[in-house]
Amino acid sequence: MAAPRLTLSVFVLMLAFITLSEGLRGTGPKKCCFRFHESPVQKERVLSYIKTSQRCPQPAVLLKTVAGRQLCAKPSASWVKDLISYLDAKPGEVSNL
């Protein structure tokens, strides 16, 4: 009779430990991208950008447009690199959201 209780106790302790350790990791990323906008966006149409979390499965850049939309783009695309350089160079504005 002691063996089932011991097994149950060990199981409950392991479950509590796993729950606690997962909680300490914090919440997951707020936004990840799974589909990407492939065609270039006009520079004048983009207000700002942010890079997604490193915890996302794929690296991405979120572009905030003047229309209030957010578009996912691949940071390796040449047009995205040019757009980021353009936004970073704009005086008096913060490029990151």
UniProtKB/TrEMBL annotation:
Main location: secreted
Entry keyword annotation includes Nucleotide-binding: no
SMART domains assigned to the protein according to its UniProt record, in alphabetical order: SCY (SM00199)
Annotated GO biological process: immune response
Cross-referenced InterPro entries: Chemokine_b/g/d, Chemokine_IL8-like_dom, Interleukin_8-like_sf
Keywords: Cytokine, Secreted, Signal
Protein's cellular compartments: Secreted
Signal peptide feature range: 1-23
A GO CC annotation given for this chain: extracellular space
Highest taxon above the source species: Eukaryota
Record-annotated Chemokine interleukin-8-like domain positions: 29-87
PANTHER family: C-C MOTIF CHEMOKINE 3 (PTHR12015:SF183), SMALL INDUCIBLE CYTOKINE A (PTHR12015)
Similarity field: Belongs to the intercrine beta (chemokine CC) family.
Name of the protein in question: CC chemokine ligand 4
Protein's gene: CCL4
